Amino acid sequence: MIAVDAGTSSVRARAIGADGSDGPSAGREFTQYYPRPGWVEHDAAEIWDVTQAVLREVIEAVGVDDVACIGITNQRETIVAWDRTTGEPFGRAIVWQDRRTAARCDELQADGVLAVVRERTGLVLDPYFSGTKIEWLLTEGAVPSDDRLAIGTIDTWLIWNMTGGEVHATDPSNACRTMLYDIGTRKWDRELCELFGVPPACLPELQPSSGRFGLTSERCGVPAGIPISGVAGDQQAALIGQACVREGMAKNTFGTGSFVLLNVGASVPAPTDGMLTSVGWELADGSVTYVLEGSIFVTGAAVQWLRDGLGIIDDAAETGPLAESVDSTDGVVIVPAFTGLGSPYWDPYARGTVLGISRGTTRAHLARAVVESMAYQTRDVIEAMKSASGVEVSDLRIDGGASAMDLLAQLCADQLGVTVRRPTDLETTSRGAAFLAGIAEGVWDGLESLAETWTLEREFAPTSDRDAPDVAYATWLRAVERSRNWQR
How far apart are CA 204 and CA 171, in angstroms? Predict the structure, then answer.
């Protein structure tokens, strides 16, 4: 199986064997655009070019005859609009981090729309989600709402291109992040489409997360005839890759942002304050798994800020050693609310805040403060999840690039008061996409068989002293309050 992981800053292709073993991989970054404060955009054509390049590289390394299928996982709420007759995008994609529709969300909230959105979609009214992004494209972005228009998340865009424009489809784990999808009926909701002015005909067909979407086309730039058989949003894919396939299991993926997901089983849970309810995945037999999610907008992106914005590191890998070179932040607290705050605050007007700087503050203190902010934000979500749902998280599985830092893993254990477990394979997102595709093509019998593929690399037990983490967390909460409601 080959997994295509189309993330927020790069696309990576990776081969995974039928025994779960690693194969060749390739990855490339693509351009980030910030045309105005709070706006984040991508060039969808560049994303497709990068995807073709990494796919070709891995297929050539593996040999096309040995590729059973392709699975896709992707940044979720990012929206692409394109011309179905030419395949050309209508302008740039609006990225999940983009906050341009914050005022529109306020208007909808004032109009009393929140209750309907919460009940049907499991989401909140926030510019993070795709509904108001699509509305903006149609009203402000000069995107035509006629028969030429095709709209979708990044998975939909890639499927369209891989199949030579033959398949316009998505899966429920991506559809449920648009604010246009009813998680109970598992269909596009016509009333919500009308609310946001979205023509239903421009939306993709809904297909199970594990099942054959189509075959690669000779027109797509990679070998033709390879089944595309698994699709899931990146966070749901990571939950599968972590083998959290039973109710009550939880994970946190540290990527550009961080996302805590808790498997809550086959029934739609009631709306939960501060948390999101999403479809985890749907299998070909129609069975579905739901998740509670806490979305943290900025974690790994704060490391990128240290590198690209401040220039205090040359490579992201320097962050852990630099942070560990000091015993504490010496009073410095960084709230990385660069694009607002997600769960449990949902404040699009919050902005990044650095507090506690003194003449003795060094780049090491700033690096440690960024790492600590990842642990504090994880606790924010877990505390809200426990309070609202009554579910106790007995342990937490972590993955993503930043999870390689032992300091971060230990800080999370200390803040949460639970054991944190890190697998040998930190690229669980791509592994989950490969698993979904492999199940569809008969490589694996089902989700339960995936537990055998998960192996522990290291676990981190929490400190027995609960006072110090609690005092540090109280200081964090004070800093969060100073960052909130800043940019009105």
Answer: 9
